[in-house]
What does this fold into?
Amino acid sequence: MSRDVEQPEPDAVEEYVEAVLSLVEQIPPGRAMTYGTIAEFLGRGGPRRVGTIMAQYGGGVPWHRVVNASGRLVPGHEAEALRRHRAEGTPMRGRDRDHVDLDAALWFPDEPPATR
DNA sequence: GGAATGACGATAA
DNA sequence: ATTATCGCCATTC
It folds into this structure.
C-alpha cells in the first residue's frame, strides 16, 4: 500500500504528558522518583523526554519529588524544592542535606501503568 | 535531513 | 565530589 502511516498525532504527545503528570501526582510525600525511573515505568520515551515535559507542564504536580539519578534537586528551583523536602521529612544526604537519599526515598508505584 | 537543544544517565578521569 | 564525553529520545531550527 502507499500512504505512509507516520503522522505524529498531537494526541499521542498529550497522552504521554498526562501519563507522566498523573504518575508524579501519585508520589507520596517524603518519597521521590527519578526521571529515568518514570520513563522506565511508562515503558516509552526516555529520561530526557520526561525532563523536558516536567519543565513545561510540571507546574501543577509535586515536581520537587522528581529528582535526577543522583538525587540532585531540580535545577533553578533547588531552594524551593529543598524547603519542601525538609517540610516533608524526605531522607536527605550530603553535607548540607541537599540531595535526596534515593536508597531510602525512591518510590515505585504499587500497580502497573494504566494500560493505554 | 542535519545540527542544536534539553528539569537525563552512565562512565571515565 | 566535579568535570567531560557520549548515548538516548524528541522537538525545533
About this structure: Residues 67 and 73 of chain A are 5 Å apart (CA to CA). Strands of chain A lie at 33-34, 66-67, 92-93, 99-100.
